[in-house]
Please model this.
Amino acid sequence: MQRHPGVIAIFGFLSGVASFVLVDRQAGLAKVLALVMLISWLWLILENMLRERIAARFGFELPRPLLRYATQMIHQESLFFVLPFFFITTTWNSSQALFSGLLAAAALVSIIDPLYYKWLAPRRWIFLAYHTLALFAVLLTALPIIFKLNTTESYQFSLAAAVLLSFPSLFTIITVRKWWRGLLLIGLTLAIGAVGWLGRTWVPPATLWLTEVAITTEFDNQNRSPGEGIQELSVSQLRSSGLYAYTAINAPRGLDERIYHVWEHEGRELERIALDIHGGREKGYRAWTHKKNFPQNVEGDWQIQVLTEAGQMIGVLRFEVTPDAGTPASPSTGSNQAPPGVQEPAATPETEPEPQAAPAAEPEPAIEAEPQAEPDAQNADQLPSPAGS
Model:
């Protein structure tokens, strides 16, 4: 390895690309990677002591280049395993692009030996932070698949693990000799946890993604399928039949998740409607909301954000309401707003009279009952191929 570093570098690059293309993204591999990442983190922390113990007990010393190469392979396999999950779930015109871009940069570093060995590996605290980021991403992906935790629970456990593992990295920076330095170490660790929690909206929900979306004025209740999607409609069209927001969300088999359709007009939130989805359907669990009551001024840009309970964005649907022909446009915002519209259940008959005012407790929209037969487990837990992401 020392005599022919160029050959090893080429092999490392090709193995990284192969792991991205050929890896079988199933629950079994997720379990193995999560376990290997935890063990390898312990090895990185205790590397010198363990090498000395092995040398004293067995009479030989493990070559450091071999150990570093094994660690590099773990980073490659882990990062390229999770990248498609995050790429397919990222809303790229939002802050989530920064986190997914950071993971992509970390994966790229893992297959470029001059960067990995000459810049990253010698800087101990940066190397540990790099490993912690990879572990954080693996846990976000593996926990919902292995333990059927929802995205909020998975994020909490993953963040807690990342905070605990960041402690040794900070310990190498801050030499604890006086009591105030110890407090600084604890304070920085807690600050990392606080920043991680406040920045959760920047992190895509790794195992939830939209397979089909539609903004439409028509909906087939019998077949549970939306009509033709639209991106623009007039005020009269909007008020005549209301509007459906339809989403089909892919989730791991056995996962129960609460998501929200958040209706916004010109950046102002009007409705936040809860929907419970269940994982396992290959084409995604279908859910929709039907809004018929709108404020007085509706012209302008609208969007429906699809969020998890923790506030992570799964996706966003956008449409524009334009004035009727021959009618001057009215301001899209103002103090003369009507109360937010009532969000009716998806199965409500069209002939049912609408209440004149929003009730104190909004009814949850009905969502599709999933078929009784469980979907094929192999299809349910498998991510689409990297080419599809």
